[in-house]
Amino acid sequence: MPPSERYSSLMEPDLLRIHAKFPAVAEYLSSIYILLRDYGHVTNTRLAEWNGVSVPAVTQAIGRLKRLGLVHQKRYESVTLSEEGRLLAIKVLRRHYLVEHLLVGLLGYPWDKADEEAMRLQSQISDELAEHLFRRLGSPQACPHGNPMPNAPIERALLDAKKLSEAPPGEVRIVRITEEGEQLPSMLAFCHSIGLRPGAMFMVKRGDTENLYVRHAGKGAAGTPEGEGFAETAIPLSMARHIRYEEAAASL
Fold first, then answer.
1. Averaged over 226-243, what is the pLDDT?
2. pLDDT tens, 92-141?
3. How confident is the model over 49-69, as pLDDT tens digits?
4. Nearest Cα to Cα of residue 102 among 118, 113, 90
5. Are 175 and 161 in contact (CB under 8 A)?
6. CB under 8 Å to 209, separation ≥6 — which residues?
7. Model confidence band, residue 248 (pLDDT cutoffs 50, 70, 90)
8. Torsion over CA: 85, 87, 90, 94 (sign)
9. I need a surface site. Which of 25, 109, 150, 186 has the fewest CB within 10 A?
10. Local confidence band at 8 (pLDDT 50, 70, 90 cut-offs)
11. Longest dimension (CA), the chain
């Protein structure tokens, strides 16, 4: 039996078994997968920053993942996923995104809080439930924040979308808040407060060394009214660089 089929058939009990012994396995594998997908390489230091832990803690975790046959790493080199680790990471990430859709789309849970809750639940649902959710939710191609499902048809387009921090003046359509952006304190809450989410239209007005000024429908989170039903808001560049857009006339 090919490794992918073997691991797919054993993945559900293995995930539960590994999770019982190493509760952080899903978080580490999905983090490694995301960093490899977005940046092409993963160091222990970068993984420590991403997960908010110490480098020695990451080194210990990588050792455990290596013994489980889920990652590869030579001394002082980047971390990579084994085929088994890659398949498991994809399933974990897919479950995470589906749980987010369940929370936001069906249960009405706040868009800006769904990521944190999905992190707690991603290792607890079965493959059968994941497939049911995928069909029930209309086969979503990305999470509610615009991060693409692994191997989705629009994955490359979303990953290659331009940074809002570099957008010229003009109308844009928001397509993604990156996984790294989701981790910034108050980032999702700020975006939620001004309606900045995938599909939303914004008018880029101008920028300076600290902020990007945009015009949008509604009341600005920290802006001034600019006519009835519209507001101008300053988006910190530290946040804008984690927001992706397409030109208003384009469509992914």
1. 86
2. 999 999 999 999 999 999 999 999 999 999 888 888 999 999 999 999 99
3. 999 999 999 999 999 999 989
4. 118
5. yes
6. 237
7. confident
8. negative
9. 186
10. very low
11. 65
The single-letter code of the amino acid at 72 is H
For CATH 2.30.30.90, list the domain ranges present in the chain: 161-247
Query: Is residue 78 within 8 Å of residue 42, measured between CB atoms?
Result: yes
Structure-block tokens of residue 122: 């991603």
Write out the DSSP string of 191-224: HHHTT-STT-EEEEEEE-SSEEEEEEES--SSSE
Of 201, 214, 177, 245, the closest CA to residue 222 belongs to 214
176 near 200, Cβ under 8 Å? no
Both tokens of 119, joined, read 């992190």
